Amino acid sequence: MKKxxxxxxxxxxxxxxxxxxxxxxDIQVIATSxxxxxxxxxxxxxYEPLDITNKSEVEAVIKKYQPDVIINTAAMTNVDACETKRxxxxxxxxxxxxxxxxxxxxxxxxxxxxxxxxxxxxDFIFDGEKGSEYLETDKPNPQSYYALSKFESEKxxxxxxxxxxxxxxxxxxxxxxxxxxxxxxxxxxxxxxxGQKINVVDDQFRSPTLAEDLADGCILIADKNATGIFHLxxxxxxxxxxxxxxxxxxxxxxxxxxxxxxxxxxxxxxKRPPRTGFDIGKAKRELGxxxxxxxxxxxxxxxxxxx
Length: 307
Known about the structure:
This protein is of the alpha/beta class. It has one domain: Rossmann fold (3-Layer(aba) Sandwich). It has 10 helices and 13 strands. α5 (145-159) links the parallel β5 (116-122) and β6 (164-169).
């Protein structure tokens, strides 16, 4: 039986991974996160509290469970907070990855068995000036401290001798148990349902990614024991404004509540790339990755909200 250890299991992607993997008879799931388990379903897997910034905790958990695969979804992802809390951002996004590399390298010397380390990264490592979809081979040029930390974490793996894969993704949406943070789809739906006016940027372009699709992509990497970098996102690139309009159309909400604005009027602490979006051809060819369209994703979300 394959053992898969998930970090950040309380988060959006982490929860989707746990729920997808516990359906499989051939996999034992070890879910880890800081603090108590926030998932409603608590059986069918092991839960172990883990602070990935603490190397001795990382060492103890890997030693105890000897996972075949580690999927690292834990990160500090609040882009503006990373700009101001740089030390915290670096520790969580870079030092923690080094912790895993060190522990895996050390332990594989003693037992010759090395887990595949799958690490989540972001479209924000690019500067957004390409003007078309990004390939895995395009040169990163991070524009914010968050982006820099994620690019540095990729470099930690690139320099290491462990078996690794990097899954880069773009704004992930979905619903989870006991959610601590919202995402753009739920935020827009919630605000418009309440009749609140919202400002939305029309000069940033992204490929929104359904959390279930991203989880499937990570599982495909694990199943195929694939290594290297993979772009895993939704298949359509659109402006953030268009995304919000599609949310409004889907749930029959009032689009006149939406005011289009420019990014430079927001005074955000961190700079965002104007246009990202992935060419997901490699993931399709090598993994069989096949994400839903944005509207199909909203249908899935709608069914879950009703349930």
